[in-house]
Design a protein that fits this description.
- This protein has about 160 residues and is α+β, with helices and mostly antiparallel strands.
- The protein folds into two domains: about 5-40, no CATH class; about 50-164, Rossmann fold.
- The chain is built from four helices and seven strands; from the N terminus they run αααββββββαβ.
- It has helices at about 5-25, 30-35, 60-70, 150-155; strands at about 75-85, 90-105, 115-120, 125-130, 130-140, 145-150, 160-164.
- It has a six-stranded antiparallel β-barrel.
Length: about 160
Amino acid sequence: MQAPDLLALLFSEGSKLLIRELPYVLDGSAKMKAQAQDDSKATLAPKITAEESWLSFDQEASILHNKVRAFAGWPGTRAKVAVVDDRNSEQNIIELKIISTRVCAHSKIKANEVDGITFRKGALVIPCGGCTALEVLEVQLPGKKVVNAAAFWNGLRGQKLKIL
């Protein structure tokens, strides 16, 4: 379910619930229905660490997309990719912070795109597990500003990107 769909559903159901229960809250009778939390059954979630922010492209694109959304802000999501210059066979490893993504509508990966990152319709298309692909819309290099995928791709000047 996409965020706008979920928001519409929550708004619709929440407003119905509020209209139904508000009179009981206002007259004080809601306290009789309320149940105290059983603190012995409460659990704490473990803290998120920066190490959890690394993306592993052997997972399906939908899982990675959800991770990018969940980790937005802190710690963000990161990936290491190789920038390959075919003219002199140099390869540099760079760390990218992945800012925004979407699951690729064209879910089938071509044989020549298994480890290569391509650029299609304003997005970096990264092959993922399960023959899926993740479209990366915005990235950030360390110490730089967030840029859209097109600006990042143009900055490569003909070099290729590969998954590590």
